[in-house]
Model the fold of this input.
Amino acid sequence: MSELHKVTDIQVQVKRNSRYSVFLDGEFAFGIDQDVLLRSGIARGDELSEEQINKILELEEKKNAKDKAIRLLAVRARSKKEIRDRLQQANFNEQVIEWVIAELERLELLNDSLFAVMYARNRMVTKPVGEFLLKQELKVKGLSEDDIQKGVKEAYLELSEGKIARNLAVKTKKKYRNLNEIKARQKTNDFLLRRGFSWDIVNDIMDNWENLTENE
Done:
């Protein structure tokens, strides 16, 4: 039978009134959040086994990990891999991380399919890219091939990849209008390739350089 430890005091922390200090056998043992205190149901005079203490500490770690994940999602939408990576960096254990991921999915706060669509849509508004680069970015986010395809489909729903590339080329050509034609063409060509547009699309734009105007 494991040794029992008596809860001799539970004190609210002065600087963080949503947290409590738990004293076992007359000495400080650990700090826990108010929600964890309520869920655990412990009170002064209780006797806790090592197993019960570990369960309380696990509740605390889950609470901390979930809170951190929600703070991250409050800044911007993220993929499961992004959340998992950040929690790993914060040194939460794998069991807790997987619990948080499942909990956020249950609450519909984490959805890779929706994230792929939102990311692609935002990318085309803020900094349009070609299909190749978009796929690479979504892959880095840890998305499945199916979710990546959903994102790509969303990206070019209103304007085709070729039309987006052409619009960028028109702006780039105008930007370099003071350069000689050879340099302007090269810079536009390189810019489009860096943005992930295919050789076929870029070559087609370059072949129609003379007609590359806003009025077309």
